[in-house]
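Bug #77: duplicate submission created two jobs. Keeping one. Sequence:
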Amino acid sequence: MDQKPSDPPVPTARNLTDSLVLFTTAVMVLLLARYTGWLDNFLNWASTRPGREVEKLIIVALVTAVGFVIFALRRWQDANHLRHSALVESHYWQQMTELPRQWRGISSPDKLMNTAVDVLATQANWQGILILTPDPNRHLLLIRAASPDLASLVGESYPFETPIMGTAFTTSQPQLIQHLADFPEHLHGRGPQFATCLALPLQPTDSTEIAGVLLVHSTTSDSFDRATRHLLQDLAQNLAQEWQQAHLTNIARQRLVSLNALHQIAAHLNRDKSLKENAADVLNIAMLALGFRGGRLALAAPHTHQLRTVVEQGLDLLANTPLPHELCNYVFAEGQAVAIADVNDIQTANLKALTTAYPETFARLDQIGVRSYVAVPLRLGQGEVLGTLSLFELLPHELTLHEQELLHNIADQLTTAVSKSQLAERVAHEQTRLWTLMESNHDGVILVNLAGEVEFVNETAMDLLGLPVHTAVWQGQAVTAVLDDLHQRLPEFADIMAAELARIETGNEPPTEGEFSTDKRHLHWFNHPVMSEQTTLGRLLVLRDVTQERLLEQLRDDLIHTAIHDLRNPIAAISGCLNMLTAETEAKERDELLKIMRRGTHGLQELVNTILDISQLENGQLTLNLLPVNFSHLVGDVLNVQQSLARYYDVSLHNLVPKDLPEVIADPPLIKRVLQNLVDNALKFTPAG
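Kept job's structure:
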């Protein structure tokens, strides 16, 4: 591995170039000694010495001179090398101190990347700088920031298999390309032509996850020496560390924003507002939290299941032009979310399929100025879709994974609110309908809940009980609070209500019934537990006025008793006549007896018909046969039938009705029965003689 600039220099063997330089330097020293006379002086002195000794002295002198020169040059070279190393190390630490200071503490990942690129390009004078990060689904590398010479490439995407940047990202290893011409597809062939490229993975310390890739280009082939590579690598690691901190800060901020948004939504939904008002509040909060300036909430109509807009925001940005409905209808029908980061740059396959299916819709969005659009279904659990929530923006806007999660959470909260509101509307409608039915019921209705409170009482119940108070006095009151007044006015009914309260408290729930009387009415009551599936909700007490039924029953009993009593007379007459016929009688007497028997038989038939008519009258099936009748003749017929009974009671019957009275319209048989009953009763209670 290459040494960092801060490492001390390590001595190495002289190469050929160093040897030639040293030899040339030694020759130059000898020539200098020759021309300065120093060499001649030395030779003259040496000539006075013996031959072999002179040679030795010359060699020693030359070696000493050359060694001295070599030593001096070596010291000078080492000093230069140390000075150069110190300069490189000083430059390294200066760069490592000054450059990261420019982007340190930036909490926004996007701002951090743009600041880092700007600092590296303007202050460090590097070229072709790019920072790429993976997309939210980690399928592509996206160019997030670029130096001015590559600014047009921001937003482009590259697969992980792309050479250089893809290799650096997937292997976590730096990639130095000395001959960039060997990669003609680099950057899709767009941008300036560089000679070399260095790709560095942005990997924070003690982390296995790669945050992205830093690309630096150069127009020369020798720009990325060892010191430069180490400097850029350390800067990339520092940038990755700062990016990780900014990313965590951004996540914390987003979660705080999400929690705040969800809290605000929950607070708004808990207020006593209409569904439209709550929907407008939620839409505004969603737009603010997710960075959109417009949106729409559409709900399905109850019966047609067609989407209808409940609230819209931001149409003023579109000159009040309505949004197309096709994408909302698609989301509603399919139950799937749609997220379009840029209408003019469709990347994913499913969105490309949508553009094929709805080309006019996408053209319409682009025409009215909408660049980004998201829509989510308001799905109730895994079942019914209640509507759609859609947001739009005039600029490209891609949701992060966290923002997508927040949008779905908002949709879930809104779905719950819509479901509760619709359920409350249905319950209120059904309750109003039920209350109306019970209020208009001819029977008295009293509903007592499990808390022992009067949940409902209608006016009929108060009228039947003869209580002069309004229903509002009882509703919401505890049963115990009205018992004192009931004990004074209706002690028998007060006992019934007390028994109902005891049934609720003890859980004794079988239905019961009974009757009681007031000053004016005879009332039948029955109760029944009110159930919802297996849960008891209270007790229902129903009061029915049976006064007329009881009067009719009494009249029927009296009539039957009278009829049975009246059957005795014709039966006795017929029986007596039969006994007399068995004896020898004259023809005239026999004829008279037969007449009496016929009248008795006719009386029996009349009684039977009367009983049948009463039954028809009770069932509402009696029909009248109205005819003109001479009332005097009608009275005469009745008196003739009752003559035998009159003789039995020793009473005389006389028809004093004038025969010249005008005829009247009546049902003759029914009138006869009425008159017979009157005459019959008169005979019974008239003294003899």
